[in-house]
Amino acid sequence: MQIAIVEDQADIRYSVTKILKRHGYDVVGFEGNEAELVKTISQMSPDLLILDVQLGANYSGIDLAKELKAEASTVPIVLMTAYTTAQNMIEASKMGIQNILQKPFDEEALLKLVTPYFQEKESPKKEAQKESTETFIGSYETMKEIYRRIGLAANNDLNILIQGETGTGKELIAALIHQNSTRVKEPFVAVNCAAIPIELFESQLFGHEKGAFTDAGSLHIGYAEQVGEGTLFLDEVGELESLAQSKLLRFLETREFRRVGGVKEKPFLGRIVSATNKNLQNKVEAKLFREDLYFRLAILNIEAPPLRERMQDIPILAKHFINEANNRLHVDISAVDEKVQEALQNRSWSGNIRELRNTIFSASLNRQKGTLRLEDFAFPKKNSVKSWQENLEEALQRGLEDNTPLKDIEEELKAVWLKVAWENEPNISRLSESLGVSRLTLRKRLKEVGIYKEDT
User: Fold this and answer.
1) What's the fold here for domain 2-132?
2) Kind and range of the H or E element at 215?
């Protein structure tokens, strides 16, 4: 049971070696600057390589892992690092490196990562799996699955579907896939599907010939042709109407397109990454989105988690956005005080990372210099806005105390619930679709509860 360790810091190398030897492992250590290190490790063929990411100013553990891979080495690798970056994690994923040991670590964490490699020692040594695990900011624990999938996506040309709420960074994930793929030198073309009128969908996506229709005064090259061998990012694909869905499906099936007014089919040479803030599976079940198109788009799924599911990342994100604000807004903010930190952690962040960023930017402009304080933020005063649960509870309690007929109580609860729905989705078309009612019915009901006007 041999383990090789490459770590330039002698104290860490000694500590890890001591722990592993105490548990019966044969350990060989390297500083990382030895001559012919790649050849030495390849010839040793240890059962596991523990590799530090930062080995020196001009050489990293990622570089060493790439050289080992070039030598056809099948040694499984665990990376050690004090600071994980998106680039490092994606590169690791692309090479099949599944585990990263975050410094500082204790004996339990070290053994938890090392032990599984030797529990399977009775079976033949397996080749490192391919399906391993501006920058997407977050802690390793919350972001590792996203980085793993970005690495998978970057290594192949499968159609990718990124799903997540508004403001969770879906386009950034798509850009990271492109930047880490073999298509990085080709164009990355982003298309907002929700902004294209249905009558212009083909013209915008596939292009049109001069004279193809009344306003076609010149040749127009569509997005599918502009992208060349690059990445075509179809954002808000869940907003496409039925006719546009049919045309997109044919395009994905044939990987060919024809300009409007043209006669010749052209091959599509790029790749497709799409994104949506809708639950497409629910839309498929509701017959609002084609099932065959969904399966074409979602060969590999990536979920962008909402901020409320990664609240532990808020301090990291706040620090990042403060640095960004200092650079872009020419302010000099050093930190946030404890009360602000608590307030940031207690918000629901319905607008996710984008809302947090805008909030930090706004407060930074107010403060200009020093530490951000509560008065720099436009937070609502405590208890000034009741939660929807409180509103529902109050409506129910009020009705019961007044002996209001159950039918009337039900109507009041529906009105409160409808107000909450409108606050979260203030768009007639999208909300009616979500609720499964006609726009006319929804508009009438909203007027009845006093929350809709014709100019809304």
Assistant:
1) Rossmann fold (3.40.50)
2) none
